[in-house]
Specification:
- The chain is an alpha/beta fold.
- It folds into 2 domains: 128 residues, Alpha-Beta Complex (Aspartate Aminotransferase, domain 1); 235 residues, Type I PLP-dependent aspartate aminotransferase-like (Major domain) (Aspartate Aminotransferase, domain 2, 3-Layer(aba) Sandwich), CATH 3.40.640.
- Helix content is 46%, strand content 14%.
- The chain contains 15 helices and 13 strands.
- The protein has a 7-stranded mixed beta sheet, sandwiched between helices. Strands 1-12 form a two-stranded parallel sheet. Strands 5-6 form a two-stranded antiparallel ribbon.
- Helix 11 crosses helix 12.
- The protein is globular, with a radius of gyration of 21 Å.
- The protein binds (2S)-2-hydroxybutanedioic acid.
- (2S)-2-hydroxybutanedioic acid binds next to loops.
Length: 397
């Protein structure tokens, strides 16, 4: 049976990560996978996480099963982090959350949940979107279509085109939107655009699915969730897929959540029973460690404050690097306008260079960039910026 299999290409992001590891050029730079890095190029464990882990080691009393929805205190804390404590949906008891193995686990649970609601639903995603979104929904047997989003020409949004396309979406379909720090473009909706999107969702009757993997990496924990909060206030039903990989630096612990907002509390209980049945049929129960760490941090004022500070440090470093990259590239007089890098949010932007130039960066300079020209700005440092800017300028000549 296995001999019938045909080999598949490696994942465009994870394949790059593996190739970078094997490269022995001491000047190599990894701007591929979306992982935060400090000035030394390391992805350290946050101090708040270390303290929470020490507490867990001392206080953990059992390794027995955790339950289908995972750690219920974690689920409550995540709802509050995403929606704020006094959001109308929480006061009306309309939200149900399951802890999931990472943001990807959350998206896969959401995909199966959507299929149980409407097996013919199409999931609409931004053009472009995170490389894994499309295969993930298709693997669950859903149809995926795209709507215009990023304006490659003007490095902004194709907002009018986006709205025109979404007006045609049939009721019962799902529209995936990135809450903040759009992956891969870094281009987010502003407050006014969120309102228009929310009103449209209500009018047309599609269900929004908000993917929030970078809360706190853009402007602040609250501001990065404002669009999502406004949307949840406007529509009756919505799905939120969240991740703690980046903002808690818990990548390999695989911790995220899938939240379902229903029209009322009774319907939320029904939706929850379906959500838990989906979980049972995929992985039965989530792992305990990551959720316990997040819950310990969010249950302690001291650890929460420390986490806020560490998150702000990561965000400030990324925003500082955005200015550094823009200034350094502009100083090289390449004839290209890189001011958009400062206007975009989160770890990613498209450099806007072509495939041959991306290949040259990798082959001649050991600079690793995803084939779409997406760069992870956090991979830049004050010690490699000149090497990077010189290399980009040389391939642009
Ligand atoms: C990324 O976009 O690089 C990250 O979300 C990591 C991944 O799994 O692709």
């Amino acid at each position: 049976m296995f001999s019938e299999l045909k080999p598949l290409p490696t994942d465009p992001i994870l394949g790059l990560m593996a190739a970078y590891k094997q490269d022995d050029n001491p000047n190599k730079i990894d701007l591929g996978v979306g992982v935060y890095k400090d000035e030394q190029g390391a992805t350290p464990v946050l101090k708040a996480v270390k303290k929470a882990e020490a507490f867990r080691l001392e206080n953990e009393t059992t390794k027995s099963y955790i339950g289908l929805a995972g750690n219920l205190d974690f689920c409550t804390k995540m709802e509050q982090l995403l929606l704020s404590d006094s959001h109308t949906t929480l006061l009306a008891n309309r939200v149900r959350t399951a802890q999931t193995p990472g943001g990807t686990g959350s998206l896969r649970v959401a995909a199966e949940f959507i299929k149980r609601c409407n097996k013919d639903a199409t999931v609409w995603v931004t053009t472009p979107t995170w490389a894994n979104h499309i295969s993930l929904f298709e693997a669950a047997g859903l149809t995926v279509k795209e709507y215009p989003y990023y304006d490659y020409e003007n490095k902004g949004l194709l907002f009018d085109e986006m709205i025109d396309t979404l007006k045609q979406v049939p009721k019962g379909d799902v529209v995936l939107v990135h809450a903040c720090c759009h992956n891969p473009s870094g281009m987010d909706l502003n407050a006014e655009q969120w309102q228009i999107f929310a009103d449209l969702a209500k009018e047309v009757g599609f269900t929004p699915l908000v993917d929030i993997a970078y809360q706190g990496f853009g402007t602040s924990l609250d501001e990065d969730a404002n669009g999502l909060r406004l949307l949840a206030q406007t529509v009756e039903e919505m799905i939120i897929c969240s991740s703690c990989s980046k903002n808690f630096g818990l990548y390999r612990e695989r911790i995220g959540a899938c939240s379902i907002i229903s029209k009322d509390a009774a319907n939320a209980d029904v939706a929850n029973s379906v959500l838990l049945s989906v979980v049972r049929s995929i992985y039965s129960m989530p792992p305990a460690h990551g959720a316990d760490i997040v819950n310990t941090i969010l249950s302690s004022d001291e650890l929460t404050q420390q986490w806020h500070q560490e998150l702000a440090e990561m965000r400030d470093r990324i925003n500082g690097l955005r200015s550094l990259v823009k200034d350094s590239l502009e100083q090289r007089n390449t004839g290209h306008d890189f001011s958009f890098i400062e206007r975009q949010h989160g770890m990613f932007s498209f450099l806007g260079i072509n495939k041959a130039q991306i290949d040259r960066l990798r082959e001649e300079y050991s600079i690793y960039i995803v084939g779409s020209s997406r760069v992870n700005v956090a991979g830049i440092s004050h010690s490699n910026i000149d090497y990077f800017a010189d290399a980009v300028a040389s391939v642009l000549k």
